[in-house]
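Regression test attached.
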Amino acid sequence: MIRYAWLIPSLPAVAFFLIVFFGKRMPRRGPEIGIAAVFGSFVISLIILWHFVTGGEPATSSLTFLDAGSFFKIEVGQNVDGLAAVMFVVVTLVSLVVQIYSTAYMEGDRRYTWYFAALSLFTASMLNLVIADNLFQLLVGWELVGICSYLLIGHWWEEKENSDAAIKAFITTKTGDIPFMFGIFVLTIAAGTANIPEITHLAETHHIATGTLTVAALLLFGGAIGKSAQFPLHVWLPDAMAGPTPVSALIHAATMVAAGVYLVGRLFAVFAASGHALAFVGTIGSITMLIAALLAMIQDDIKRVLAYSTVSQLAYMVAALGLGEEGYTPGLFHLFTHAFFKALLFLGAGSVIHAVHSNNMSEMGGLRKPMPVTFWTFVIGSAALSGIFPLAGFWSKDEIISEAFKTGHYPIFVAALATAILTAFYMTRAVLLTFFGEYRGHGEHAAHPHESPPAMTIPLVVLAGLSVVAGVVFGPTGLFHDWVHVGAAAQKPVDYGFAAVSILGALAGIAVGYRLYARWREWDPLRRLGPGYVLLERKYFLDDLYLKGVVRPVQYRLAAGVYWTNQRILDGMVNGAGWLARKLGIGVDVIDRRAVDGAVNGVGFSTRWSGGLLKYAQSGNVQRYAVALFGGVILLAIGITVFR
Amino acid sequence: MSAQEFAFVLVAVVGGIAALRLVTSRNVVHAALYLVVTLAMVGGTYLLVAAEFLAWVQVLIYVGAIVVLLLFSLMLTKAPIGRETLDNQQRGIAALVGAGVLAGLVFLIQDYFAGKKIVLRPARTAQVGTAIFRDFVLPFEVVSVLLLAALIGAVVIARKEEAPEAGPERRVPLIGRRERVHR
Amino acid sequence: MTSLLAATVRLPFLLFFGAFLFSCGVYGVLARRNAVLVLMSIELMLNAVNVNLVAFSGYLRQLTGQVFALFVITVAAAEIGIGLAIVILIYRNRETINVDEISLLKW
């Protein structure tokens, strides 16, 4: 059966095309195809997981897609080991649940059919990334995941802020993808192959220089920073809440953001071979988990609380991987358990939003009575996220915390413990504000809240069940460790001393949360933090920094420059030359004057002025571009001939 | 000069002149007919280098299908006559670039391939078929998917928009309007 | 066909022919206003490539060149189909298929 693992990504991919072409003709306008396909994938995933439960061996196979002789070849293949099998189950299960949930949530949407097509493609891309046995196939899945998240975040693109959020997500993750791609190049050239098992083998047997591996690992981690929303590229994830809530669940639990962590896990040998890379990974993880947990404390939008909590939990996994071999299994175990309860929390939040037509917790409250199923499942999810014994989050989180201490990574230990407390605190706050007290909805859309239809509550119950049992079944029994481990790191028994510490931390967080938020107050008690609150409210000013430091200068200067240019193209060359001379004079004059005021202005102006030189690039006439293209080729050819 | 070379020069000269007329003629329909001549002559060169399967494919697909398609689109669009309407302002620089490309290529070919000869061995259709279906199956399948996509795409693009159906107004989802990000 | 067996053709002949067709195509793409004529010129360039592929296929005694020439023909058919569909759509919307009048994509 394991030979047919390639069916897992193929089924949703086929479903995508079927939905696009025939979806609207179907009696239920599309979702049944996607659900059937992903259910098939889920069943195959379970069979493959069973193969590993019964002690099966990993299997790799590939066929050549493009062969350029000894120089280079690109393959498509499958690399199925315990990690991949676990990821298959997680991705297909979450996707299945999300699709079923969406049939009710998206009822009556303008692009209902397209939505399900995109969900199928999203799932297929992620599964392709998981199954990939070489870096280029992985890159294809990686980029497809990016484009699908762009499509789905911007699903309601009629509103500017939604399409802005989609663009922001795409460009921010793309920033990380550039080093990622170079990392792939470095690794492929250094190893002489793009095949992941071979690279792992070469890295483990020290056939690649450590320095090269460090560079490759750091570059690759750049991609993970972008995709898994780690500091400093975490800014896109909260804005990605603009998408439909089930999409958020999918992005946060199984697909998009898990890709970065999965990448580090998949190429762990490359990271493990370099102490510097591991230290960097651990540092980024520790920073991110703290700042994200702090941000989650003050959000009013329930989805944003969950978004920052995702960033923070992903940082847990990243930091765990940064511990080295000991942290490998706990980190990926957390990825596994987190998928269930984070999907649960998002779908629960979606159910609430569906009922009250608002994202803001200040307009919720008192929903415990009208929405009992949502309430109880949400509480279970929150408790699991906070790490309450014996729910799923406890087992994975506790392992990370104790491993961090035992391997002597005290900064990571402190950060993880502090984050655990903060997590319990903000989840308590979210639960109290949403479900307790009086209903505070008002305004035109303040409907009477009601429980969601079964298509939405059944997924919640299923996920809640999994959030309860996933930890205790797979963690202390050593099952997960059998599938996913690296090197000689043995399964360790649960250390109840540390367990007590982390549970006490969580309880402390809950107690403080209860103390502050048991009664609804218009004025958030956290405002007492003063300047600290402002800092959090403005998200450490990172968005402002990016906007003012990167986006604006490029956008305005370049745009202004290009605009100038077009004004000039009409006047022709002669005027252009004169204008150039005049502009040069003014430019020199201005730079001269501004040099006194400060070099900053000068830099800005010269950007604008050089933008002015780009004028011929923007005539809009294709043939003019073509002349430049062919003329350029000729000039290059002449240049090469002459100067060779 | 062997007989093949003589025949080849003849074919190439006809094809070349037709190609030149194709890009300079003032009548679009004439241009299309010159295209037929050029394509047929290219097919002829295939025959002369013993690639007969390719030659027939060339005649069938290019001369048979693509030119007909081009003629149809000329019929469906306005086809004015005259240099000013058919050529744009940058004819001079275009000629310069074209000549530059030609000069560069001729220089390159002279430099590397002067005196090299092709020994003609007919490629049987069966051999071509074997090559396609053994060594190049995957590209072949991909190309077939591409063709299908192009077929559907062309239909979708060129189809006239249907008038919007009269009927009950489409439901606008509440969530779509309400759920939003607060900055 | 047997008479062909021992015969030879000089490689540069074919390559010059291809180069000439390609240059004509380049000129056509750059200088023609009518979109259909531009497409025809592109066909010319593709044919030039095919001539080269076939020439080298014979020179290197491999069939790969011919197979790829077949692929090029297929892709050309796809391209012309899509291209003409776009041309007709543009004509329907804008009453012109002059390439230099379709310059919306500027700042």
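Expected vs. actual: identical. Chain C is about 75% helix and 5% strand.
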